[in-house]
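$ ./design --mode recover --in tokens.txt
reading tokens...
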């Protein structure tokens, strides 16, 4: 009798811990691929923003609603394929320099992060 009760309580405890550790968001992570742009009109980079859980993994069933804005360097870069789900592609306009992109929450309007984008000369940043 007590053994069944202990098993039921253990299953409930494991379920509560899994909900707290896996399904609760703890932070926002930004991935930039590749880390720099080249001063070429064909050079692109992708910025992806997603929530992470307490264990550091991507939170399942969680969406971030974001807006990206060029804070500095609008003459150096342009944004394409912006989605409210947290990703944007940045394309170089062929000039070298530095640009800053602000990431804002759609729900609150608060700035979450700033991303620094470096645009190197074509021959320096070649693959």
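writing sequence...
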């Amino acid at each position: 009798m007590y053994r069944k009760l202990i098993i039921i309580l253990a299953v409930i405890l494991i379920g509560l811990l899994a909900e707290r550790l896996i399904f609760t968001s703890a932070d926002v992570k930004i991935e930039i691929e590749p880390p720099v742009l080249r001063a070429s009109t064909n050079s692109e980079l992708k910025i992806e923003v997603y929530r992470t859980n307490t264990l550091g993994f991507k939170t399942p069933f969680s969406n971030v609603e974001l807006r990206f804005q060029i804070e500095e360097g609008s003459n150096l870069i342009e944004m394409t394929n912006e989605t409210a789900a947290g990703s944007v592609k940045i394309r170089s306009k062929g000039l070298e320099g530095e640009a800053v992109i602000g990431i804002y929450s759609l729900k609150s309007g608060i700035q979450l992060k700033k991303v620094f984008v470096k645009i190197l000369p074509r021959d320096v940043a070649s693959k």
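exit 0
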